[in-house]
Write a sequence for this structure.
């Protein structure tokens, strides 16, 4: 196939964070569009595309074959970073389109494979704060964050580097910055405001339902704290 891969705005933004001449792993590649796009655009790029399920694994293999990139993209079946060997000299990881808990688990389980990794680009569909916390506790500096809207979804993309400088401020609690993202809460872009307005209304609705029920004290306290934070960042 001679045409070029077309990416969504979300995947395009992720691809742009990879370094020139990158050798990276795309964990949970699903269809393989991202590594194919990167290798078409950058003649020196190489990738490993991994999948834990056979269907997406075969689909990714098919895409790589269709775009004649089998010599530069190695498609592997396996769980998370376990597909990597000591001989794989990769320096960057993309892990996108999964929940923040799963992304954190995959990075945590594969921690011994992170020694030679300089950059991780993560796009958690939820619980981004868990991924930020993992970076903070494991020597990765959060160097960039993007929030964008596409097809009625709001996505957060986090970029962490081993050799970078931290984006966290000293005059704000770390918990609050992990929750909103230190860069995103400073920029307060339209999608950011939209996301947190939606979350605010969600918390208000839940609080109304559980406020007078016994046994929910911890939940209520935590929701009220988050509501206070949201009101602070939205003003
Ligand atoms: N990364 C692509 C994107 O952002 O468009 C695909 C996202 S898709 C929703 C998530 C993919 O991750 C699925 O294809 C799933 O099979 C794969 N996946 C889930 N857990 C995984 C794991 N532990 N290791 C590798 N792949 C995994």
């Amino acid at each position: 196939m001679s045409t070029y891969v077309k990416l969504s705005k979300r995947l395009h933004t992720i691809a742009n964070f990879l370094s020139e001449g990158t050798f990276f792993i795309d964990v949970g590649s699903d269809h393989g569009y991202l590594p194919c796009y990167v290798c078409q655009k950058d003649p020196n790029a190489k990738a490993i595309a991994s999948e834990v399920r056979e269907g997406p694994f075969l689909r990714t293999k098919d895409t790589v074959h269709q775009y004649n990139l089998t010599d530069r993209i190695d498609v592997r079946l396996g769980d998370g970073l376990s597909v990597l060997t000591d001989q794989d000299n990769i320096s960057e990881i993309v892990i996108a389109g999964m929940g923040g808990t799963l992304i954190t688990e995959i990075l945590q389980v594969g921690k011994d494979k992170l020694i030679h990794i300089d950059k991780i680009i993560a796009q958690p569909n939820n619980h981004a704060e868990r991924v930020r916390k993992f970076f903070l506790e494991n020597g990765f500096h959060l160097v960039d964050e993007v929030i964008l809207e596409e097809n009625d979804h709001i996505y957060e993309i986090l970029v962490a580097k081993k050799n970078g400088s931290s984006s966290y401020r000293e005059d704000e609690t770390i918990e609050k910055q992990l929750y909103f993202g230190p860069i995103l809460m400073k920029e307060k872009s339209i999608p950011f405001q939209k996301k947190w307005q939606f979350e605010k209304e969600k918390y208000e609705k839940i609080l109304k339902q559980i406020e007078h029920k016994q046994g929910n004290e911890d939940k209520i306290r935590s929701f009220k704290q988050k509501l206070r934070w949201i009101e602070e960042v939205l003003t």
